[in-house]
Amino acid sequence: xxxxxxxxxxxxxxxxxxxxxxxxxxxxxxxxxxxxxxxxxxxxxxxxxxxxxxxxxxxxxxxxxxxxxxxxxxxxxxxxxxxxxxxxxxxxxxxxxxxxxxxxxxxxxxxxxxxxxxxxxxxxxxxxxxxxxxxxxxxxxxxxxxxxxxxxxxxxxxxxxxxxxxxxxxxxxxxxxxxxxxxxxxxxxxxxxxxxxxxxxxxxxxxxxxxxxxxxxxxxxxxxxxxxxxxxxxxxxxxxxxxxxxx
Length: 247
Description:
Elements: E1 2-3, H1 4-15, E2 27-30, E3 35-36, E4 38-44, H2 47-55, E5 60-65, H3 78-89, E6 93-96, H4 99-103, H5 109-117, E7 120-126, E8 129-138, H6 140-151, E9 156-159, E10 165-170, H7 179-184, E11 189-192, H8 197-206, E12 209-212, H9 215-218, H10 221-234, E13 237-240
Parallel strand pairs: 4-5, 4-13, 5-6, 10-11, 11-12
Antiparallel strand pairs: 1-3, 2-6, 7-8, 8-10, 9-12
Helix pairs in contact: 2-3, 5-10
């Protein structure tokens, strides 16, 4: 068992949220009980995740996608009211880390995705975009199958590039707009979670393969890694719960 504030201090030490201009508050978003024995991690603080945390007798939930995003309706009603009521009624802490969790060199979504896909020499290319090399060169079709097997989700592949892919770039989530960073670096392929209408034309006309591998699917691994690190640090219980999302 550990105190909430000790866990929060350790997470802030690891993830350094003060270094980011983000779209939401990072750290403690909903305050619950002080003593923490069981931590649940997940991608998004949906009602399904909260209900699963309640069933697991969790004291703390840590997510990548929390609440209070810039530009959203600030009123506590409807879906937001129901989610918050569940957390408050059950005295559960909600912590969320967005860009700090994408960026972290060990626990971050980008770093963890490299391990899942078996990418060699993963390193930051520019900002949140990473680059690395495949263990062995693959055709575009082979690489798509490789992603599908690793993430248990078939990616959408577009673009016209090299016949063999070796150097790849990636940024998890809704980072399709960074495809030009990969193009400028001369990479063979770029992976993100989502795809926009212009992404197809950019990939086709600029000679790169693009794979939309799923926003949720690419961002499952960072928060789970953080949960396991906290388990080792504080001897608390941890469980990652994957509330499936096809996007």
